[in-house]
TrEMBL record:
GO terms for biological process: response to symbiotic fungus. Gene3D superfamilies: Cupredoxins - blue copper proteins. It holds the Pfam family Cu_bind_like. The chain crosses the membrane at residues 138-159. It is found in: Membrane. This is Phytocyanin domain-containing protein. Keywords: Copper, Disulfide bond, Electron transport, Glycoprotein, Membrane, Metal-binding, Signal, Transmembrane, Transmembrane helix, Transport.
């Protein structure tokens, strides 16, 4: 059975397009969120962060907060005097706008030393477009898979 190569290529591109172009939203800590007792090194180590992705810190706003710091302040758990990220809502979304190392800590006394600190490396090559909502990403992904399957079927039917 022969399938026209150009159709196969098209199907593969259609299937892979969402993985290449979609921005990802990371819930820091996954289901645990942002709190004491979570190993954020472990959470981050198998993930790739790209420019255009977002981090969401979910936490009890009366107990925790999130500060973006530099590498030295990360090591020493020094809380900055100003909050460069805006307000502490307990559901803080942070867009990863530039590549490089990023450091985040909780500013509540003792919490950074207690493990509430996250270091990530953001890579170039993510989506330049604004991040779509999770729902529209899902729809687009399903639609692309649907499209890919249609082309595979058409390709198979055409050669038979
Ligand atoms: Cu905290």
């Amino acid at each position: 059975m022969a399938v026209h190569p150009s159709l196969v290529v098209f199907a593969i591109v259609a299937l892979m397009a969402p993985a290449i172009s979609s921005a990802t939203e990371f819930i820091v800590g996954g289901d645990d969120g942002w709190k004491l007792g979570v190993k954020y090194d472990d959470w981050a180590k198998d993930k790739q962060f790209f420019v255009g992705d977002t981090l969401v810190f979910k936490y009890n706003a009366g107990v925790h907060n999130v500060y973006k710091v530099n590498g030295d302040d990360f090591k020493s758990c020094t809380v900055p005097s100003n909050n460069s990220l805006g307000s502490f809502t307990g559901n803080d979304t942070i867009k990863l706008a530039t590549a490089g190392n990023k450091w985040y800590i909780c500013g509540t006394s003792g919490h950074c030393d207690g493990g509430m600190k996250l270091k990530i490396t953001v890579l170039d090559g993510g989506a330049p477009a604004p991040a779509p909502s999770a729902a529209s990403t899902l729809l687009a992904t399903n639609f692309q898979i649907f499209l890919g399957m249609i082309f595979v079927i058409v390709a198979v039917v055409m050669v038979n």
